[in-house]
Hints:
Number of helices: 19
Oligomer: single chain
Mean pLDDT: 84
Number of domains: 2
Radius of gyration: 24 Å
Amino acid sequence: xxxxxxxxxxxxxxxxxxxxxxxxxxxxxxxxxxxxxxxxxxxxxxxxxxxxxxxxxxxxxxxxxxxxxxxxxxxxxxxxxxxxxxxxxxxxxxxxxxxxxxxxxxxxxxxxxxxxxxxxxxxxxxxxxxxxxxxxxxxxxxxxxxxxxxxxxxxxxxxxxxxxxxxxxxxxxxxxxxxxxxxxxxxxxxxxxxxxxxxxxxxxxxxxxxxxxxxxxxxxxxxxxxxxxxxxxxxxxxxxxxxxxxxxxxxxxxxxxxxxxxxxxxxxxxxxxxxxxxxxxxxxxxxxxxxxxxxxxxxxxxxxxxxxxxxxxxxxxxxxxxxxxxxxxxxxxxxxxxxxxxxxxxxxxxxxxxxxxxxxxxxxxxxxxxxxxxxxxxxxxxxxxxxxxxxxxxxxxxxxxxxxxxxxxxxxxxxxxxxxxxxxxxxxxxxxxxxxxxxxxxxxxxxxxxxxxxxxxxxxxxxxxxxxxxxxxxxxxxxxxxxxxxxxxxxxxxxxxxxx
Length: 500
């Protein structure tokens, strides 16, 4: 047998190993860049929220919420799913880009016209006539969003998140500067709206500055139908997820008023930090990585276990910290006018933790070409939510809404993990053990911090109590991290991630 024939299998194995190693390095580097972006985004966003909460009233946030609900409703119901379809494809996607961009431009223009014309009706629905002009102005963002360079999807597809960082960073800075400056000058909701519009203009501009691809208007039927066949399930899932995540806002705004909507959205914002931040970072990196492993179940399984371990050990303690420190933080930084949102926030902390864990399943479904699973599970969640949210809101107001959202998400999480076990051969008991340890650690930390806060309350100022208790809680958390990661196999992935 020729020598090159003998060496061929070895070369194939070597190439495969090098390919997996290359993807792993890209995932790690991408994770660092996405994490850095979210740290910058949320760090500056936190400063922005605290300053604006001090300068503006809950009613201003409620009015801004109505405008954002209007735009997000139409954007969701007109979602194409084309970008996710392009990221999921393993082959070259250049021939599809102009078609996807052309659809995006048409969609942006249609959304603008619908929002502009329907603004009075939306304002009438929420009994807030002053929202008409705000909705029309914020509709401009759909035009700039539709015109963005489609080439930037390569940042995510090829795990080049350093370029994604540059693309997003300038928009974050502009939003911060514009909204805070105008809040000091105007002291009304237009500061929030102007910041949002400015950020969208900058994103559109930067998309062409940072990526060389220049799209042209060209609709190809074959490419359109191919993208649509994958995207249709994503469209369905996105619509259902929107109704689940934004339907409560619509109900609160309609039943309880603009001020209550401001309280609820602020409670949702803080309680969902684990879901919106931690899992956002992880899913942005894991979806394209999972897509590259879609034909290798063993690699996919190993990758997912590492992701769920990391997510659980960050998101569950973070939700516990938000729960135990929410009242002190609100009094110190947001002001007493925001205290009515605390009961809802504490219930939603449970929702935030379970949603963070549940969000790890979506990238698996998409990467394996099974987006319909997420659609079906989300449909069940939506049905449960629709059955219980109105009576609970009518009786218990914001607390009722929070409980309905949390309960329906728990059911959805169970169904999602059940499907993950079928697809990856990971048992439910194994997932439960991964989640149990950080849950127990969080309970220990919360008990210790509560005891310390009670002792300090009568002897020291609120600021000292908050600061010292926070340091104390973080110290306990770090102790468990170091202790468990040094010898427990359950946390070896966590240790390896940071070592690399």
